Structure formats: structure tokens, C-alpha cells
Amino acid sequence: MKILIIENEVYLAQSIATKLGDLGHTCEMCTSTKDAIKSNSYDVILLSTNINGQDFNPIIETFRSAIIILMVSYISNDTVSKPLSAGAKDYILKPFMIEELVRKINHYQDYEKLKKRDIAYKKYLTHSFSTLTHEYDHDSIELPIFISSSFQKHSDAFAFEHAYEKDLPIYFITLSDPKAMSEIESLNQDAILYIIDYQTLKKSDKKIFCSLIANKKAIVSSTDKIENVEHKVLEIKSENNIFDQGDILPIEDYVKYIVLNYQYKFPDIELSKKLGISRKSLWEKRKKYDIIKKK
């Protein structure tokens, strides 16, 4: 990383620069804030608040995208509180171990990466769910809740929207993972658990699973019809008659989509032939997906 050290104690600045340089960082030094704002862009600013008569706000404004860590000899409103309120990230009390300074730098560097990644994920999810038109009153929804939808994206949209509305972290778990049950048991109640693939559980495991989530903020998704559960079941039906561009559906979702949308366009014998299944299998699929063909 490129680091600027603003410190009027030259020996101290040189010592910090040498130690950070040994760790692979590129360091530059200056003794005043006026000289600092003439410099290039940096990843990290180490700003000493011991420089008398200096205004630190121009530094914070100029390098707002950088990680600014205050180096202070004592804690006061002027040395810590005001600069932090203006946008500095943290402070470290002199004298300090270089390892502690590096820990703070790494912490905020990781934080900035995660923040940018979170923004990108939110933009992607907003774009991905933009074609869905369902609206929910999330204040009236109590968890745990089961979501039944032939298209996974509808359940995804509900879960992430609910987590956003409730301002809670969300954990994603698939029941196709052999460790899913133990993972669910270990997670606390201060986060939303978004659990998919309920349809993959054996009948004997479903009872155990329902007991496991009874006191948790769980949203459970299934692409099959959900029966015999004590919790509320929300069925979300697709309003689209075409696939979303770029989507690749699982085989079960594809078969269900074709049966729903083409059973009146083709006779059963032709429809089953196009799907590569027997008429008996087609009948079983209708029963499984609770599809009624009106005559």
C-alpha cells in the first residue's frame, strides 16, 4: 500500500516508514498539513495530531477515500473526537507497537473491500430482481416462514428484501449440504437464515428440521408444494410467461414451467413426448406440482 506519514517528529516518522517499508509498503513523509495536500493519492494517511497550529480538516477532505489513522499523544476533543467526526477512521495512542498500527490498517482495508463488495452485490440483486412485481408487508410477516415457488428467484427476492427491510444480516444455507443441519443449529437468533432446497429432505428429516428452526428467524424455500408444517406457508406464483433472459432453470423447474405453460397448446401424448417422459410420468408430475388441467 502507498502510505503518507504526516509527522513533525522526523525521527518517529522515519522509524514508522522503515518498519512499514520492511513489510512491503511504500511510505512518504511530510511535516505539515500544507505540504501533505500537495501530494498524490494514498491508500493510508497516518496523521499526527501533535503538530501545533495545524488544521486537520483539509487533510481529511482531500484524502476522504483513504484510510486516515490519527497518531495522538493524548485523547481530547481536538485530537480525536473532531477529526473522527470529520471522517478520520481511527486513532492510535503514542507510543505504539508497529504491529498494532498494521492491525488497524489491515482491519480498515478489509472493511473498505467488504463495503465495496456489498454495494456491488446490492446493485446486482436489485437488477436481478427488477422483473419481479410481488410486494409484501414485511412488518406483518413473522418468522419462521416457508416459501413455496416454482421459481427459486421469487424466494430469493423475498428473503433478501426481508433482510434489508429488517436491517438484519442474512445467512444462506442449502439443505443439499450435509453439514446444513449442524450449521443451522449453531447460528444465533440475531440473523435471518435463508434456507433453500427443503424439497430435498427426507420425510423423516423434515420433522427434525422444523423443530430446529422453530425459534429462529428462518425463511425456508421449496420448489415443491409444502405440506404438514406448523409454520406459515407463503406460495408465490410466477406472473411471467417467459424465462428471464440469461436464466438457466433446474430440470424440475423447467418441466414444471413447460407443463404449466404448454399443456393447453399440445395434447398430453405430444407434450410428454417433447419432455421425453411417459404419459404416466406427466400425470405424476401434475400431481406432484399440484397442477390441475381444466377441460
UniProtKB/TrEMBL annotation:
GO biological process: regulation of DNA-templated transcription
GO molecular function: phosphorelay response regulator activity; transcription cis-regulatory region binding
Domain Response regulatory span(s) in chain numbering: 2-109
Classification via InterPro entries: CheY-like_superfamily (IPR011006), Sig_transdc_resp-reg_receiver (IPR001789), WalR-like (IPR039420)
Keywords carried by this UniProt record: DNA-binding, Transcription, Transcription regulation, Two-component regulatory system
GO CC annotation: cytosol; protein-DNA complex
UniProt protein name: Chemotaxis protein CheY
Taxonomic path: Bacteria, Pseudomonadati, Campylobacterota, Epsilonproteobacteria, Campylobacterales
